[in-house]
């Protein structure tokens, strides 16, 4: 962590609050008073039960959601400026692949939108598919792939644009345990290779501990940042670490941060 | 208790075995309709049908007689079929394009568009028999030539029906997107035009075929019905009417057969087009 503190701060969140109107027209505080610094190259998780505002926080960083109060600055710019410069990749809960495009064409989609040349797009898509282990499936259509493979295409597409920042919203929550573990390892390997900042939303404590440098624990009603836990497990992480005593201590520590311990 | 045990051990009935056999099932979907057709042909040709319906071979001619007349009038039937298909196809084409255009407008400007869709939904429910005479009246001054006037009137009716159907379906195709698809395009800072071309347009393609599956048969039916009311005497539908009025029932039935063939042929063409164009969408 001391090493992290010396790193450059990439995302600066100050007094952030987001208020929605519910169906009856009443104000509902989804997030309130969030202060957080996220460093360059850091893998940080936003952890909490549903309704704690973790997805709202991520969407605010991505400029998919306007803050009601406070500010978010990414490398000194607003989220909107960063979005318009196409500097981040977003991985949604669902793969959101276009059925009418092949796997490769799906990975090329953002590159097309960014007016890259045909050769560059094709080369980059091939690289990305190789990275996620789907080289042989370039010309398949999404519905010919399993859920885990579709989510890998999703990740390949997000990394394809060489994002400064990768925002992931419960990307593995719909997958089975085996596929999830495999993708955890893949994601950490790709993260190590590319050295990007990753903000990862999850409701799974083990997942957060296994992947992250730091875990932000959020509590609901109203959604707020209640604790930040440093994860000092060595890198590179291996699946065996999940059996270690230290891993379980960390899981226990994070669990203790939830109020009432009911989660 | 003893009874239930017995029930479980009972061997499967023939019906159960048939139901669980997928090969037999898919064969049945072909065999059954063919069988039904053969039964009707036998009943018809043997005049059993006439006894059942208490009619005679004058009003319900034998199939062989209808076939004979069909063969003798092949040229005339062909000319009238071309006239009907021209009306159906031109109306379908212009109407579908128009409907798709309105759907695009509604999808891009939801505030104005949604109201427009309600109006079009109302149009879609106007019966053809009501629309056809109105169109005849409206197009009286379009041309000095009766055949042209009638053609325009008939095409307009088909067009309206096809446009309404296409518009409602295409609008769904342009707006009912996968969850997060719009957010994904937002994260790429994609322009509205790009979102339209790369997401909404391709997303609407299967819906176009949903519309056409209804529009293709209905445009032929609409063309046939509007011919009844048209000023100029031409078309398969009009020939059915004229020949019934003249009590030339075998000829009327020959045109009914032609109408069926046109409908089936158009649907087959559509299905082939769909199987080629929709290969990527599942």
From TrEMBL, chain A:
Do you know which Pfam families this protein is assigned to?
Answer: ABC_tran
Molecular function in Gene Ontology: ATP binding; ATP hydrolysis activity
Under Gene3D superfamilies, the record lists: P-loop containing nucleotide triphosphate hydrolases
Which keywords does this Swiss-Prot/TrEMBL entry list? ATP-binding, Nucleotide-binding, Transport
Keyword ATP-binding (UniProt): yes
Keyword match Nucleotide-binding = yes
Q: Which SMART domains match?
A: AAA
All copies of the ABC transporter domain together span 11-245
Task: Return the SUPFAM superfamilies for the record.
Answer: P-loop containing nucleoside triphosphate hydrolases
The source's superkingdom equals Bacteria
Residues in a coiled coil are none
Among PANTHER family, the record links this protein to: ABC TRANSPORTER ATP-BINDING PROTEIN, TAURINE IMPORT ATP-BINDING PROTEIN-RELATED
- Per its record, how is this protein called by name? NitT/TauT family transport system ATP-binding protein
* Naturally occurring in which organism (per UniProt): Catenibacillus scindens
Automatic annotation (TrEMBL), chain B:
Topology versus the membrane: Multi-pass membrane protein
**Compartments in which it is found:** Cell membrane
Gene Ontology cellular-component terms for this entry are: plasma membrane
Q: Give me the segments passing through the membrane.
A: 26-44, 82-108, 115-135, 155-174, 252-273
Q: GO biological process: what's one of them? A: transmembrane transport
SUPFAM superfamilies in UniProt: MetI-like
Sorted alphabetically, the keyword list is: Cell membrane, Membrane, Transmembrane, Transmembrane helix, Transport
Ranges of residues in domain ABC transmembrane type-1: 81-273
UniProt similarity note: Belongs to the binding-protein-dependent transport system permease family.
> How is this protein named in the record?
NitT/TauT family transport system permease protein
Its source organism is: Catenibacillus scindens
């Amino acid at each position: 962590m001391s090493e992290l503190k010396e790193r450059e701060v990439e995302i600066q969140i100050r007094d952030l609050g987001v208020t929605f109107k519910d169906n009856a027209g009443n104000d509902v505080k989804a997030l309130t008073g969030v202060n957080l610094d996220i460093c360059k190259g850091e893998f940080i998780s936003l952890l909490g039960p549903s309704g704690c505002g973790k997805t709202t926080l991520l969407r605010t960083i991505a400029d998919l959601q306007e803050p009601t109060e406070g500010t978010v600055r990414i490398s000194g710019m607003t989220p909107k400026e960063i979005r318009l410069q196409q500097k981040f990749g977003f991985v949604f809960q669902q793969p959101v692949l276009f059925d009418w495009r092949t796997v490769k064409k799906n990975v090329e989609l953002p590159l097309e939108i960014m007016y890259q040349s045909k050769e560059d797009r094709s080369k980059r898509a091939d690289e990305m598919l190789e990275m996620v282990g789907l080289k042989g499936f370039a010309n398949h259509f999404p519905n010919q792939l399993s859920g885990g493979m579709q989510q890998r295409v999703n990740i390949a597409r997000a990394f394809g644009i060489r994002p400064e920042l990768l925002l992931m919203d419960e990307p593995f929550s719909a997958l089975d345990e085996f596929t999830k573990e495999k993708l955890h390892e893949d994601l950490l390997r790709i993260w190590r290779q590319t050295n990007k900042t990753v903000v990862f939303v999850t409701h799974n404590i083990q997942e957060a501990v296994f992947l992250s440098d730091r875990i932000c624990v959020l509590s609901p009603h109203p959604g707020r940042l209640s604790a930040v836990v440093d994860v000092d497990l060595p890198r590179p992480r291996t699946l065996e670490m999940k059996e270690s005593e230290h891993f379980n201590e960390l899981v226990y520590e994070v669990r203790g941060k939830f109020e009432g311990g009911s989660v | 208790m003893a009874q239930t045990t017995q029930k479980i051990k009972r061997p499967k009935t023939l019906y159960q075995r048939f139901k669980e056999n997928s090969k037999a099932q898919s064969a049945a979907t072909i065999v059954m309709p063919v069988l039904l057709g053969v039964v009707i042909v036998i009943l018809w040709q043997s005049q059993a049908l006439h006894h059942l319906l208490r009619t005679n071979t004058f009003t319900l001619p034998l199939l062989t007689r209808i076939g004979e007349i069909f063969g003798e009038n092949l040229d005339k039937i062909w000319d009238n079929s071309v006239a009907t298909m021209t009306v159906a196809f031109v109306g379908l084409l212009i109407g579908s394009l128009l409907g798709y255009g309105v759907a695009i407008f509604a999808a891009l400007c939801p505030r104005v568009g949604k109201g427009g869709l309600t109006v079009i939904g109302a149009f879609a429910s106007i019966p053809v028999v009501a629309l056809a005479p109105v169109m005849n009246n409206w197009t009286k001054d379009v041309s000095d030539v009766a055949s042209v006037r009638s053609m325009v009137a008939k095409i307009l009716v088909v067009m309206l029906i096809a446009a309404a159907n296409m518009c409602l379906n295409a609008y769904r195709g342009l707006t009912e997107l996968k969850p997060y698809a719009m957010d994904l395009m937002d994260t790429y800072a994609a322009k509205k035009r790009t979102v339209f071309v790369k997401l909404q347009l391709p997303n609407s393609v299967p819906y176009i075929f949903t519309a056409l599956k209804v529009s293709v048969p209905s445009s032929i039916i609409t063309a046939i019905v509007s011919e009844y009311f048209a000023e100029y005497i031409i078309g398969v539908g009009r020939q059915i009417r004229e020949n019934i009025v003249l009590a030339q029932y075998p000829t009327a039935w020959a045109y009914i057969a032609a109408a069926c063939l046109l409908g089936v042929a158009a649907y087959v063409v559509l299905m082939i087009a769909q199987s080629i164009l929709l290969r990527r969408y599942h």
